[in-house]
From TrEMBL:
Signal sequence segment: 1-31
SUPFAM superfamilies: (Trans)glycosidases
The protein's name in its UniProt record: Uncharacterized protein
Record's compositionally biased regions (Polar residues): 100-111, 118-128
Basic residues composition bias: residue spans: 525-541
The entry's keywords: Signal
InterPro entries reported for this sequence: GH
Keyword tRNA processing: no
Length: 541
């Protein structure tokens, strides 16, 4: 992900904005989902959060809901809403690293700048802890993060699997089936943390934790999208890397080491329903130096993504292969010969930097291919999401982040994208939805209002698919009809309200008016909203 991290502290009070998002049963049922201004206390997965989202989900048991899968291997365009979301899990949160050298590997200490590697969350601020102060860890101490890490290190299995199991629990409580996570190939997870990462081939990638992660996901009955990535090791670890010898995204390993690791993963988990995705953001200079040079790319990421496709064809031929994983999905159209040669069944890209949650990518960039928005969420640039996610010296507001994310998820589904992966379930930066940064208790995930909003809307629409042609925008109120297999319908609507930096200190009550009937935010329990026929208007293009 080529994005700017939050480097600033939390010095201002949370925003006072009320926004409404209702999922209303067609007929006489009251609002099923409403976000309110009431703050929700952070909760761990072991407790019930005092959620600000109220849900009246259907009583129909959909635990055995049949998956609707397209020929591409992705969910079909008519799949229920809950099957169009793949939570982005991050089970590589916890690590140790060696910042000494091979002769004296433990002589140094690890200094982690929490201002650049961890989200400044309101829970820490409220407790009086100085989350911005650099904290020093001795060699071997556990810390959350990867940005700014210099030396080779390890990702221990115990704390990371604890975090993974907590994340899986949250996914299942949200009524979802799909998840996405990385098969990490990085010197930050080396088999021997005392190796010399400056010499290609001296370090070896460890497959222990990635293998256990995939197995845990499968054992939980979830369907994983597995992509390959390098994490964020020191990009200058190898001076002047030879593009014929190494892949510049992870120059500490030889090409053969990377290929052997990928081949191991595909063979080990063949015929288990994995959706494989290509290497992360290959055309991003941040993650793959020289990736935009197409001549060099032929012996770099194009070569590697071709190898992934060939290996899938050999060992897991019935699996989906989602090709691209681009930071800028608009560039995919420039590589149609390459995606075809690699046996791609679908395409993917990352949907950051949009000015409105109602304006994401509306269709696949290349005709004939299904598409997954495989990473999206907070991004810098003056948009609502940058403001609510803790940029520009403004504290993060999880409720506004959740409203932004759920609006995007709905519109991506409505516009026909097959699958979308909100970034990310836990993390140490501004992009995370929940928090897992307590070194004294790794794996104790604290949920937020953002998670609650996504969860409750998804549960309210579990088993419900968008009814084609019903999406409308009238007077800045968006609405769409969803229907389940039994014929029951729900009307989903929300306002186009966008808080700005100019009005962030004002309380802004948002009232939704629909066909002369009003549902206030939050709704009064004694009131009922009755449906009137939708006006016949053209859906926006």
């Amino acid at each position: 992900m080529s994005k700017v991290k939050n480097l600033n502290g939390a010095a201002r009070a949370p925003f006072k904005v009320i926004a409404a998002l209702c999922a209303i049963s067609m007929g006489t049922a009251m609002a099923a989902v409403t976000t309110s201004a009431a703050s929700a206390a952070p909760a761990t997965v072991q407790t019930t959060a005092d959620a600000s989202v109220q849900t009246a989900a259907d009583t129909t048991d959909t635990s055995n809901e049949e998956l609707e899968i397209a020929k591409s291997g992705l969910p079909s365009k008519t799949a229920p809403f809950d099957q169009t979301v793949a939570y982005f899990l991050w089970p590589y949160q916890w690590g140790t690293q060696n910042v000494g050298d091979t002769a004296s590997p433990k002589q140094s200490t690890l200094q982690v700048d929490r201002a650049s590697t961890a989200d400044v969350n309101q829970t820490e601020s409220a407790s009086g802890n100085d989350a911005d102060a650099p904290q020093t860890y001795s060699q071997g101490d556990l810390a959350a993060g990867e940005y700014g890490w210099k030396g080779p290190g390890t990702r221990p299995t115990e704390p990371n699997l604890k975090s993974l199991d907590a994340q899986i629990k949250l996914v299942k409580e949200s009524g979802m089936t799909y998840v996405k996570t990385s098969y990490l190939i990085s010197p930050l997870n080396a088999a021997d943390p005392n190796c010399d990462q400056s010499v290609p081939g001296n370090c070896s990638p460890s497959t222990d934790l990635p293998d256990q992660i995939i197995q845990h996901i499968l054992d939980a009955g979830l369907k994983p999208v597995i992509y390959f990535s390098q994490g964020n090791p020191d990009p200058k670890a190898v001076s002047n890397p030879d593009p014929n010898q190494v892949y510049k995204t992870v120059p500490s390993f030889t090409k053969q080491q990377v290929k052997d690791t990928i081949s191991h993963a595909i063979q080990k988990f063949a015929n288990k329903g994995i959706i494989w995705e290509s290497f992360n953001e290959p055309e991003s200079e941040e993650h793959w130096p020289g990736g935009n040079n197409k001549d060099e790319a032929k012996i770099q990421w194009i070569e590697l993504d071709q190898f992934i496709g060939n290996t899938i064809q050999q060992y897991d031929p019935n699996a989906a292969y989602v090709w691209g994983n681009f930071s800028g999905p608009g560039k995919l159209s420039q590589y149609q010969d390459e995606m075809k040669a690699a046996h791609a069944t679908a395409l993917s890209g990352h949907g950051y930097w949009i000015s409105s949650p109602e304006g994401p990518l509306a269709s696949s960039p290349v005709s004939g291919y299904d598409f997954m928005d495989s990473e999206f969420g907070c991004s810098a640039g003056g948009t609502e999401t940058s403001w609510s996610c803790g940029f520009d010296k403004i504290p993060k507001d999880s409720r506004l982040q959740g409203i932004w994310l759920i609006r995007q998820l709905l519109v991506k589904d409505i516009k026909g994208l097959n699958l979308a992966s909100p970034y990310r379930m836990v993390g140490y930066d501004s992009f995370s939805i929940n928090d897992d940064n307590d070194a004294s208790n790794p794996g104790a995930v604290k949920t937020t209002e953002s998670y609650d909003i996504i969860k409750n809307v998804t549960l309210a629409l579990k088993g419900y698919s968008y009814v084609d042609g019903t999406f409308q925008n009238a007077d800045d109120v968006y609405r769409a009809v969803y229907k389940n297999k039994a014929g029951k319908q729900k009307l989903v609507y929300w306002t186009a309200d966008k808080p700005t930096l100019d009005n962030d200190e004002q309380t802004k009550d948002v009232t939704i008016n629909f066909e002369n009937n009003t549902c206030s935010s939050p709704p009064r329990p004694s009131r009922r909203c009755t449906r009137r026929p939708l006006p016949r208007r053209r859906a926006p293009t």
